[in-house]
Amino acid sequence: MSAMRHRPMAPPGQGAGAGAAGEHGDSDDNNFTDDESSPLTHDIYGGSQRTIQETKGWDVFRDPPIKIETGSTANQECLELTVKILKIFAYVFTFIIVLTGGVIAKGTMLFMTSQVRKDKKMEYCNKDLGRDKSFVVRLPEEERVAWIWALLIAYALPEIGALIRSARICFFKTFKVPRTGHFLFVWLMESLSAVGMALLMFVVLPQIDAIQGAMLTNCLCVVPGIFGLLSRTSKEGKRFVKAIIDLAAVAAQVTGLVIWPLLENRRELWVIPVACVMISCGWWENYVSPQSPLGLVRALGRIKEEMRFTRYFCHIFLSIWKILLFFTVTLLIYWAQGEEPGNLFSMYGDAFGPHKIVVYELPAGLGGVLPDTLESANIDTVDVDAAYNTVVYVLLLQIFGAYLCYIFGKFACKILIQGFSYAFPVSLTVPLSVTFLIAACGIRIDDPCFFHDTIPDYLFFTSPSNFRFNNFVTEQMAWAWILWLLSQTWIALHIWTPKCERLATTEKLFVQPMYSSLLIDQSMALNRRRDDQADVKTEDLSEIEKEKGDEYYETISVHTDRSSAPNKPSIKSSDNITRIYSCATMWHETKDEMIEFLKSIMRMDEDQCARRVAQKYLRVLDPDYYEFETHIFFDDAFEISDHSDDDIQCNRFVKLLIATMDEAASEIHQTTIRLRPPKKYPTPYGGRLVWTLPGKTKFITHLKDKDRIRHRKRWSQVMYMYYLLGHRLMELPISVDRKDAIAENTYLLTLDGDIDFKPNAVTLLVDLMKKNKNLGAACGRIHPVGSGPMVWYQLFEYAIGHWLQKATEHMIGCVLCSPGCFSLFRGKALMDDNVMKKYTTRSDEARHYVQYDQGEDRWLCTLLLQRGYRVEYSAASDAYTHCPEGFNEFYNQRRRWVPSTIANIMDLLADAKRTIKINDNISLLYIFYQMMLMGGTILGPGTIFLMLVGAFVAAFRIDNWTSFHYNIVPILAFMFICFTCKSNIQLFVAQVLSTAYALIMMAVIVGTALQLGEDGIGSPSAIFLISMVGSFFIAACLHPQEFWCITCGLIYLLSIPSMYLLLILYSIINLNVVSWGTREVVAKKTKKELEAEKKAAEEAKKRVKQKSMLSFLQSGIGDNGDEEGSVEFSLAGLFRCIFCTHGKTSDEKQQLTSIAESLDSIKSRMDTIESAVDPHGHHASRHGRRRTTSSGSKDHHLLTSVAEKSGDESDESDSDTSAEPKQERDFLTNPYWIEDPDVRKGEVDFLSSTEIQFWKDLIDQYLYPIDNDPVEQARIASDLIELRNKSVFAFFMANALFVLIVFLLQLNKDKLHIVWPLGVKTNITYIEETSEVHISKEYLQLEPIGLVFVFFFALILIIQFTAMLFHRFGTISHILASTELNFCKKKSEDLTQDQLIDKHAVEIVKNLQRLQGIDGDYDNDSGSGPDRIARRKTIQNLEKARQPRRQIGTLDVAFKKRFLKLTADAENNPATPILTRRLTMRAETIRALEVRKNSVMAERRKSAMQTLGAKNEYGITTGAPINNNGGLPNQRSGRVSNAGISIKDVFNVNGGAAEQIYGSNGGGTINQGYEHVIDEDGDGNSLRLTTRNPHPHPHHQVSWGQNTNGGNGNGTGRL
């Protein structure tokens, strides 16, 4: 047995609970070694000092792992390239749409205001009236009224949109009523904005020309500029400079307001400053800050914070009020201009209908100068028809231009292309509009007929008088306008530096719920939310570490949603780190399935390590950083040992997992890897194996003994929920606020033991979680893996289910089932009331077995939905799982799924009223949609039956009744077999019928095609079929990566009778069967059980022999001696006839036998009691392993209780009588399984007393094994059969009634039918005798119920197809948001060294930490060309492989080995091989890396020197006592934070460097079950310095040195 470690009690501050590091990092930071590095020679990691590999000269030939790309690792280059091309297209297309939409909206707005000017006169084109004459037009009042209405409608539409959005959210979601004072202030600001908009549109802009109007729209930022200036805090960098620029920007804005009133000296122009300031009040909220030094601004900031929750309630009223106010002010302006307000209504019909335009002919003497009055008698007039539709076209252009600008701008923000495709076009809108207006006005003045064929001649922009382009610079105040433009750009500078996360919600992107159509570019710039959180810079990290009490690298990450959380001082920034616990359940997986799963975990480990190292050593900010830990819960992991029935050992599946760990790691890292043997822990529930993976994440396997803890998947889920969320989180000695923050950012990644995925798939799910705090669970796209027809069927079924059904649920409500094979659950959601606790409900009723245990993942999602949480689906998050390949396994799987699905949906529908009230995402319409689907599921068999009947009629030309008989007989026969026969017979018959139906379906397809040919494509069947096939095809085209799934559609079609008729019947009739049905194996039996079986077999053999004819004649009365009859007779002993039989009374011998058996039983029980009282005198069989206590007495602390045995279990085996002494065992101290050589010779450790007590309490409370009570089992079986019978009856009656009604209507279609208007057949008959032509029309006749059902399915199809389109857009947005285009960002030459590293940090680290080639590249393929095989360096490679070397087994050590060898040596290394192809030849990258390395080393050296000097505030001493293992105990004694614990303790488990959770329990005691983690580096000296190259030459290329004096360079450590 492996040596067990006995840990000494540690002094305070030095134990496992005091592992938090110091102010500047670890005490040995200068040596680049810390709690995350791998020790190179110490046996704490390597397991042995002998790490030099010696290879015999004759045995140097290699078999390196071959990289096989399947499933999630399949070649994605084509897809990645396609996505990058798509993102380039998105950049350009979005830029064009936003810019074009903005310019069109701006231009049409100025065009409309130009026509509103009273008594507008302009030169008219003489092309149609007379080339030699000049004409002038004055717009009539009808035309002016039309354009006023157009402006009113353009203003009102976005407000109506805001009203609808606000009403929807308030009615279907939650809202909060604001305080009265706050509401009144918001009402005042919105009212000022509406009045200002009316003044600008109807007073200011009509009085100035269009070019001036466009320029003036850059002067609407006065109030935002002032509030932005007053909101600047002292914490901002360069505050004084920014304040000066703010003042200059506000001054520039103010000059724009007064320049034209002063220069042109027109009284009406003094409305400009009033209107512009009032309009700018509408954007006040975005520019006030609760942290402002001024009390007034702080008060406004508090109103802003409240508006986050009350906005939609306010805007229900504000939207209506603003429309009414805008309209009222318009009427007042119209009245003030001397017009009758009633004209707006009386002239409405004429304005938008035909009316005349009066054109005035100018006398030749005027010379083209427009006269002041046109009423003189000598001026001729011409009436021309008005192009009255022009106003509608311009209005539509304005509406759609603004809407497209807003929608695509929001899209650009969501997919993180805001700089180029949002800020740039928004800033360009006014300059481009001014440019176009200058050109257009200049051309129109020179040639009034230039736009003759495009724009009506009487309509155009108000042009400047005597316009000439060359004097534009002086006359049009172009220089002043540039200042206004620059000032607006400065005030809206935040749109150039977005900090939002991917796919941010509209609420996070914009302040107001809608845009302003008339001022679209200003609305887009000033309404876009400002992120008031300052960037964390690399140089600030040391300051951050000083401020936070627990030094740990998580806090380097960026958290985008910090502003939404209340500022609670007790919450540390590290509490917001994403923590992912992958929790997998295993049972009887195959080796291939295990390897796929383990490779997925290894990829996550590699990715997490790269992100951790990038933050720790390259000092970068990674928004996607996460902590990661893996837990596997192995059901039924033990079996009876080979050497004794009294001991247990790990079963073959656990041993298979242990054996495949190294293989999986080697495949991922492309080099031979030997992981360190797992650390073994005896536990109250069985055992635990703990690996440390190459990336230093923990891989913890919990081995469940079904005799100690309840088995099955749901109870494994209860285990990890209570362990991770209850024990390891809720028992932390920290504040409630910190626990809340940690719980919100803790996620459980539920997995199956055969899942295959990549880290990116998890990142996409985390993105969804970060985007929506109400999201309780998220699932990805599951791809079935396997081979054979059943897998092909499931490929298409899964594709359609995800493409249409899950996408629809996601879009119109919530996903009802987040599959347990690959889903992400939020810890806080699971911890809510009626979720985790209710999930522990034991199945005591028949319904519970169906709903709770057969579909546990669906039930868990139902609980989340009923608590108000949302469940979403991400199509971009791909995972691959093995699916049933055999018919029987598939049917058994669906036999579990179908009833549980129906039961859970029925539960949700029954509780719909309460669920709608509590869940914002579930509406009455969504419940109605689910009811339709449920109706379709229940009536599915009847529908398929009717389809088969009709298809038989069409295909085989038989009548309806014959077809009915042909179809009803096999179905009734199958139902009879399902009721009476065993499962294997049912499945055999189902398989035969499925094959027959597949052949029939092929004939049906042909017959249906013939029928469609007769009825035409206008028939309902043809329309439905074409729509269905078309929707499937379009869905496949929209999922190009999965397009080939549609090729399996034919198998799906052939399987329809089997899957929607036979399978449903099989599932419903076998509702009472609650076994798992898949992956079943035969359990290993004890020797006594084998002997009993052998004895029973012999008895059966004798019985058969006695029943044979020969024995019948030879053996007298046979074995019927147990019966006698009231009347009997026999003939010479040959036979005996018995009538009215009854049991014979026991004779004396039988009674004596019974007494002897009772005495033996009493003796064995006495022996058991004596062995418990005197354990040294007797051997306790299997240490009370068998649980026989009832569920009422759950005390299974076997060290103190006596478990009485009964039956076979109380018998002592023959081996117990041997004289050989047996080792006394205790399952929490020295169980036999830890000595099993197949479990590897890893060290043995023990849980802390706190955790042991937790597991005992948890098992007592929820997870004690359920005793086999025959009475209770009989009751449950009876209840299940009763439930089955009720369900079958209801199911049968519903389908029978449906079939009967539709079939009878079909038979009497000529009497009761609906005439179908499409697909009419026209028959033309010519009669020669009478020369008559008879034309008759034949209409299709449809029975009403059938037609309703067709439309019912068509409605579902339309809903799903529409939702799929929207979901695909969201998925493409998600993919594009996650795709980076390096060449679309700043070029490397333009980046600073820090920016260059930050940009490629994770990518660089992944290449630096590769284990492959760490001891020298093994060149397996030299060069290219026709003779590349001949030039392969085979012998050189073999010699290199033969050399003794020390293996580097951890990724961070491999990183540091390469990182530290960065030297300025260009002679030996022209290019750096470890970087990616894109970065290999970049000298800037190498120089930046070297600079970063030197700065980090200098910082750590400084930290170490401070530790030596007077600043040794953490009490680190070098004279530490030596522990029992001969090494130094941990020297780190971190400063204790206010909350009392380092957040690192949340993630460490099983003796980690900072294990405080279990040992201390907040009370200061040290856990003896954990050792002090010795210094994880070469010599244990925490203050050793590392030498580096002191003279790096900046102009030299960098190469990897052959040797450095750093402890990491030559260190060894076998994993």
Give a written overview of the molecule.
This protein is of the alpha+beta class and 1615 residues long. The protein is 49% helix and 9% strand. The chain contains 49 helices and 22 strands. The strands form six sheets. Strands 9-10-11-6-5-12-15-14-16-13 form a ten-stranded mixed sheet, with helices on both faces. Helix 34 packs antiparallel against helix 37. The longest helix is centred in the N-terminal third of the chain and has 42 residues. It starts with 42 loop residues before the first helix and ends in a 15-residue tail after the last strand. The N terminus and C terminus are likely disordered.
Summarize the structure.
The chain is α+β, with helices and mostly antiparallel strands and 1615 residues long. Helix 34 runs antiparallel to helix 37. The longest helix has 42 residues, at 295-336.
Class computed from helices, strands and strand pairing: alpha+beta
Helical percentage: 40-55%
Strand content: 5-15%
Major sheet summary line: 10 strands, mixed
Shape call: globular
In terms of topology, how is this protein built?
Blueprint: H1 43-46, H2 77-116, E1 121-124, E2 134-138, H3 141-172, H4 180-207, H5 210-216, H6 222-230, H7 239-264, H8 271-280, H9 295-336, H10 343-346, H11 348-351, E3 356-362, E4 380-385, H12 390-414, H13 418-446, H14 472-475, H15 478-491, H16 506-509, H17 520-527, H18 541-547, E5 578-586, H19 591-617, E6 626-634, E7 638-640, E8 648-650, H20 652-669, E9 679-683, E10 686-692, E11 698-704, H21 713-730, H22 736-744, E12 746-752, E13 756-757, H23 759-771, E14 775-785, H24 789-812, E15 822-826, H25 827-830, H26 836-839, H27 846-853, H28 856-866, E16 870-882, H29 887-910, H30 912-918, H31 924-938, H32 940-956, H33 960-980, H34 983-1015, H35 1020-1037, H36 1049-1054, H37 1056-1069, H38 1087-1107, H39 1109-1114, E17 1123-1131, E18 1135-1143, H40 1148-1173, H41 1249-1263, H42 1270-1307, E19 1314-1327, E20 1332-1342, H43 1344-1378, H44 1393-1408, H45 1434-1442, H46 1451-1460, E21 1462-1463, H47 1483-1508, H48 1544-1547, H49 1557-1560, E22 1599-1600
Parallel strand pairs: 5-6, 5-12, 6-11, 14-16
Antiparallel strand pairs: 1-2, 2-3, 3-4, 7-8, 9-10, 10-11, 12-15, 13-16, 14-15, 17-18, 19-20, 21-22
Helix pairs in contact: 2-3, 2-4, 2-12, 2-13, 3-9, 3-12, 4-8, 4-9, 5-13, 6-7, 7-8, 7-15, 13-17, 19-20, 19-44, 21-41, 24-43, 27-29, 28-29, 29-31, 29-37, 32-33, 32-34, 32-37, 32-42, 33-34, 33-37, 34-37, 35-43, 44-46, 44-47
